[in-house]
């Protein structure tokens, strides 16, 4: 058997990285992270779309590392807010990327908005690039409703207010392994895994 291919997972978000590594299990690639490189470029997420940011990161990092790289960009879209916070999900309440502050701002903006109008979805775009060349960008979404108050302690980001009707729980009330079978990230990564398996 030949050497295992190395895949650089390009994210600095520790909790997201954990989910990605978990989701890529069994793909037959050796996952390495940017921490293993002495210096790495800071890629600004300055595009207007999740896809744009994911592609930019994957291309830049794959070129820098001269390897296969996977990058993703994700966030929450609330229908009654015209798709906000969208690509600004992480910094919704300011540059500090504070989950609690983001949730507070979101709930404040939805005050008085009835349950039926609180529909939202998580969106994930994942991009795979090799040595500076984009291979493919794919997406996954999962639909839910923004709850009236945060519930649960698992997960990260907006999970405590993302109520998932089929399970009658928020994403922060379900285990990591369960979330990893229904999430937007799972759905996008499933497509990436298919590509990695097809292309030895
Ligand atoms: P990124 O790190 O720039 O892609 O920002 C993604 C942001 O979207 C996170 O900081 C969260 O606020 C939100 N987000 C993305 N995926 C999830 C998820 O699975 N659960 C909760 N929040 C998420």
Give a verbal description of the structure.
The protein is of the alpha/beta class. It has five helices and seven strands. It has a seven-stranded mixed beta sheet. Strand 1, helix 1 (14-23) and strand 2 (29-33) form a beta-alpha-beta unit. The protein starts with a strand and ends with a helix. 38% of the residues are buried. The model has no long low-confidence stretch (mean pLDDT 93). Inosinic acid binds at residues 13, 45, 73-76, 89-90, 102, 122, 155-159, 171, 183, 185.
Could you write a compact summary of the structure shown?
This protein has five helices and seven strands. The chain is α/β, with parallel strands linked by helices and 200 residues long.
Number of strands: 7
First-residue to last-residue Cα separation: 12 Å
How large is the count of helical segments? 5
- Ranges where pLDDT stays below 50 over 5 or more residues in a row are none
Q: Helix coverage percent of residues?
A: 25-40%
Mean pLDDT: 93
What is the CA-based Rg, rounded? 17 Å
Assembly category: single chain
Proportion in β-strands: 25-35%
Write down the secondary-structure element order: EHEHEHEEEEHH
* Alpha-beta content class: alpha/beta
Q: Can you tag this structure with a few keywords?
A:
about 200 residues, alpha/beta, 5 helices, binds inosinic acid
């Amino acid at each position: 058997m030949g050497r295992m291919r190395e895949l650089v997972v390009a994210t600095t978000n520790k909790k997201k990285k954990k989910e990605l590594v978990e989701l890529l299990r069994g793909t037959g690639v050796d996952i390495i992270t940017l921490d293993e490189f002495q210096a790495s470029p800071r890629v600004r997420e300055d595009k207007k779309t999740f896809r744009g940011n994911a592609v930019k990161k994957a291309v830049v990092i794959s070129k820098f590392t001269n390897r296969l790289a996977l990058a993703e960009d994700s966030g929450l879209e609330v229908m009654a807010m015209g798709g906000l916070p969208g690509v600004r999900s992480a910094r919704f309440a300011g540059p500090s990327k504070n989950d609690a502050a983001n949730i507070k701002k979101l709930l404040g903006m939805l005050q008085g908005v009835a349950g039926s109008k609180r529909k939202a979805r998580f969106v994930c775009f994942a991009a795979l690039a090799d040595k500076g060349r984009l291979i493919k960008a794919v997406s996954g979404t999962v639909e839910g409703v923004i709850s009236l108050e945060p519930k649960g302690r698992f997960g990260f980001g907006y999970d405590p207010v993302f109520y998932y009707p089929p399970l009658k729980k928020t994403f922060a009330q379900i285990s990591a392994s369960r979330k990893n079978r229904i999430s937007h990230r799972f759905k996008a990564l499933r497509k990436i895994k298919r590509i990695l398996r097809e292309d030895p």
